[in-house]
Amino acid sequence: MLYVPGCNRHYLERARTLHADSVILDLGDPILVECKEESRANVVEFVNQGGYGAREVVVRVNDLDSPWGSDDIKAIAQTKADAILFPNIESKEDVDLALNELDQAGGGDLPIMVMIESPIAVLNAKEIASASDRIACIVMATSDLISQLHARVTPERSAVLTSLSLVILAARAYGKAVVDGIASDFKNMHAFEYACRLGRDMGFDGKSLVHPVQIAYCNDAYTPKVTEVEYAIEIIKSLKAANESGKGTVVVNDRLVEHHNVRAAERLLKLHEMILELEAKYE
Hints:
This protein is α/β, with parallel strands linked by helices. Helices cover 48% and strands 14% of the residues. Strands 1-2-3-4-5-6-7-8 form an 8-stranded parallel sheet. It has a two-stranded antiparallel sheet with strand order 9-10. The longest helix has 24 residues. The radius of gyration is 20 Å and the shape is globular.
């Protein structure tokens, strides 16, 4: 998920050509106060024009209690955006308030995404994830979280591992997608690649990005490799054959395979097919 500043028309145009699965057209904190109104107008124009192809188009609005939040929602609710991303969600009450504002603006059918960026939000992750079926995705704001934890950024991400795990647990418990936070140092690609693979291994569905140079590294980390696809196919075939012969488990490549492994393999194959479909549309 690539953040694209709404104040920059060149970036909004360029996002239509990048190999990102999702673009977040941003009206939020990174936008200067004097550019807020212009950014909103730009984003409404570009979203309604379309041209983003198969990419998911998400708009991040300003905080609901800011001078711009309500006007952002009223404007975006009438566009062709795929979802609205609400920042600083810390409770079920925050989710209810966001949905109420969106419904009143005419966006009653629009999915939402929510950002978790504070210690209290992490502790309330279960409450937030279960707040509404309209929550399509939970997005981590790790930079904000690290600041509020009074922690430091390290390659191992040790300061936020517990927080990340708690949010992943809540997302999985309630069937929500969950996306890792940004890496603001977009020149240290070694650290970024490690962060992508760590997030993938923890269970994230993807990662939010701040620069196009990060896209290829992120896509590589989250795209199933040929060997993984082949292994998934073998798992499904082998356990099916074992079941037909009266066995409940089977060993594949020296690993015990059970039914939960088949479900994971089926998910990987579905992900593989979706990525192939997206890549074909980029060409």
